[in-house]
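Final report, Chapter 2: Outcomes

The project's central promise was a pipeline that accepts a single protein chain and returns its three-dimensional structure in a standardized token representation, suitable for archiving and comparison. That pipeline is now operational. To close this chapter, we reproduce one record exactly as it appears in the project archive, with the input sequence first and the structure output second.
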Amino acid sequence: MQNRLQRILNSKELVTMEEELLISEEEYQKSGVQIGTQLKTKDMLKYIFKIRNDGLYILDLKYTDKMIKVAGKMLSRINPGEILVVAQRQYAFRPVTKFSEVTGARSIIGRFIPGTLTNPNLETYTEAKAIIVTDPLADTQVMKEARNVGSPVIAFCDANNTTDFVDIVIPSNNKGRRSLALVYWLLAREILLKKGEIKDYSEYKFSVEDFESQI
């Protein structure tokens, strides 16, 4: 899996992936995907577009868009039942649940029990060929276990996140209700397209609102 991941990341297709955005910048901005935090890490520096007057770091939407495409391409090659999506933030519960429903991936929302990926004696034990995490800060245990078992990690990373255990970084606001709905909606759409389950985006029958938390 790691070799396949590296081939995708090194692929010439990444060049063409940059040519056209999945949605317009205005649509990204309306959902606040680009709104970061007032703290930044060295790991996320390359993904930051600018800093606002109020001290908020603004994420580069071109990176967000490109890495959703990269993640979608990789995940489309994996049996959906072998993809695990994890979220401990409440605003992510609905997006993750809907993502799993649309793509067939498995999900864990709420508390992640230590050993779930590494201890076969636990009732919650599960195996996964790829892990998606909503926030590396909240999901550190998941990522450490994924590293131990060799499963690549895709993470939605805000300006304040570190990426030590992340294989594919999708820079995005991972705290906002609308932002989380949009990025999971886009990633699910991209997976279905790459798998050939939809011929083009017009066949994608789900709305961003379907993915949005009502809390």
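Archive annotation: The first strand starts at residue 48 and ends at 51.
This record, like all others produced under the grant, will remain available to the consortium after the project formally closes.
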